[in-house]
Amino acid sequence: MSKKNYLASRPHPWHGINIGAEAPKIVKAYIEIIPNDVIKYEICKETGFIMVDRPQKFSSLPPVLYGFIPQTYSAEKTAAFSKMAPVGDSDPHDLCVLSELPIQRADIIMDVRVIGGIRLIDSGEVDDKIISVLNGDPFYKGVNDISQINPVIIDRIRHYFLSYKTIPGEPVKMQIESVYGAEEAYKVVEAGMADYKTHFGK
What's the topology of domain 8-200? Predict the structure, then answer.
């Protein structure tokens, strides 16, 4: 390996990792949470390290790998797809990854194939959850659209996002506007890439 083929220091997972040459169909994913994590971890935007956001308050636990797509941002172009909310949530695009075999650690990167998405509205902000499969996973070979996934899996993902912030006795903050397939998901990822360039100049 030549010196030109490696980074001498760890890049920031959001800003320093390239989304990939085949985006929006195949993108790099950074994983923050694994299934059944009882602590919600997320990236520290200042340092790039994984930090504890909060304990999961109730019984709803993530059913799939969860993270984000580097060098994306949910802002004006992303919000334009929604009919229910005027603004994005000012975060990188969230991502769920389906993998047949269990992956039991976070703070990792992987190549994933985008197959669809869930347009979630969180407290009046657009918070899309891109659905993907681990690229190269033979179990998901030939799966290129969310319609090819067992709907039970999608229902579990939907239920998690509808319930994970719900506090009994308080107004519900989360709404699902739509579940969409690969073609729209590609457009949402491209919008996130464009929003990132607008706001971060890269």
Answer: Inorganic Pyrophosphatase (3.90.80)
**CA distances in angstroms from 173 to 38, 86, 106, 122, 124, listed in the order given:** 21, 15, 27, 6, 8
- pLDDT by residue (tens digit) across 121-166? 999 999 999 999 999 999 999 999 999 999 999 999 999 999 888 7
pTM confidence score: 0.94
Give 100-143 as a 3 state SS string: CCCCCCCCEEEEEEEEEEEEEEECCEECCEEEEEECCCHHHCCC
Residue type, 6: Y
Neighbours of 4 (CB within 10 A): 5
Contact 109, 13 (CB under 8 A): yes
